[in-house]
Amino acid sequence: MKKEQTIYIIGAGISGLIAAYELERAGFSPIILEASDGVGGRVRTDEFKGFLLDRGFQVLLTAYPEAQRYLDYEALHLKNFEPGALILKPGDAFSISDPLRNPGQTLSMAFSPVGSLFDKIKIYQLTQSLKQKTEEEIFSEKSTTTFQFLKDYGFSDKIINNFFKPFFRGIFLENELSTSSRMFKFVFKMFSQGFAAVPEKGMQAIPEQLKEKLTKSQIRLNTPVKQVEYGKIYLSSGDVLEADSIIIASRPDRILPQLQGQFKPSRKVVNMYFSIEHSFIAQPKIALVTDDQFLINNLVFMTDVSSAYSQNNKALLSVSITKPVEVDDKLAKLVAIELSALTKISAEFFEHVKTYIIENALPDVDDMAYSLAAGNTKVSDGVFLAGDYMLNGSINAAMTAGRKAAEAVISSYQTVH
Ligand SMILES: Cc1cc2nc3c(=O)[nH]c(=O)nc-3n(C[C@H](O)[C@H](O)[C@H](O)COP(=O)(O)OP(=O)(O)OC[C@H]3O[C@@H](n4cnc5c(N)ncnc54)[C@H](O)[C@@H]3O)c2cc1C
């Protein structure tokens, strides 16, 4: 096998980094072309005013099979969220706990305002049945919407509205739970078999760790690609690169003329950070806002999860808005007023830190899948695709797609050259 082939990877997100790692393991030395100023793609963390700000609230599910394969969890110093969620209503709050991990709290939930004892039993049944199934089996089951699946499974409207809707809106970044039931089951299984976690010093530690594993790859930052055609890469700078193989580990419709117009718009989210003297939750738990009148869907004190998110002794609150909203000067004030209505803490104590408008948060994939045959990553001679949009919007999928594209490149040299 020739190892001196010129292989380019476009995009240094999770998928591109995994593709590079797999190519290195096979003896190649790929070159990554990255438009932005760092690695990580959608998994980035900024240092700002003494805080660590993830660009959009997101978590690593420790049960992800691909993450277990590629990441050293110990070195990431993962900080786990407490399973379950806190439900916030104006002037009221109650907890929904995980029946598997906190059986002692089962009874309290049975009578809690979140759902009924019957719902609790259903959650237990679902957890057990998903435990028996592989991820591949889950993704080969009939697909319906998540909302329809929950209704058909027999969950009450109460628990759907009080828990499933706000919890999964925050994950799927869409408001109707129209996402495929396959994805719901996969995520539910991951939540019940592991923890939601963040690295102690922010999500970007994940791609940084993947970057550290690369010893033979070159990473060229600030190098946007304009177009890919006939084995040539046209950079925005005007330079043209000749390639033996190209892995496009970013949305390909923007650089491959034949795929233009083939993708649905991505899902969006607005993520706002506030600081305050003390956390009003004081536990590493996601809080959900169930009242549809509110803009806020979910919130969490990142400093309750990892104290390293703040270097100035103030608590850092991350708020996610999944509803369509106009981000203007008034929004931070409006959200602070909502926080005040939920907590009875005066709005002026919530100090706005920063707002992220994330236009391309998650791909809107119709036919979600868990994996794919390596050969299906090939679009034309020498051009291969990677990226979460190939499968489903998750770190796990981004890793799988990167690995599969690398396998396809490697096997193209085994068979043809
Ligand atoms: C707010 C938010 C919340 C999320 N929550 C979760 C979660 O809780 N759990 C989970 O598992 N997943 C979550 N995700 C999804 C997860 O982050 C993504 O699935 C994953 O990071 C995608 O990786 P990728 O490599 O496929 O794509 P990307 O991260 O998008 O990487 C693509 C890279 O290509 C670069 N690029 C683009 N165009 C060009 C070009 N023309 N030339 C050169 N480079 C280019 C980009 O700059 C980028 O670095 C979330 C995402 C967001 C944004």
TrEMBL record:
Protein name stated in the entry: Protoporphyrinogen oxidase
GO MF entries: oxidoreductase activity
A Pfam family annotated for this UniProt entry: Amino_oxidase
InterPro entries: Amino_oxidase (IPR002937), FAD/NAD-bd_sf (IPR036188)
Location of the Amine oxidase domain: 14-410
PANTHER family: AMINE OXIDASE (PTHR42841)
Domain of life: Bacteria
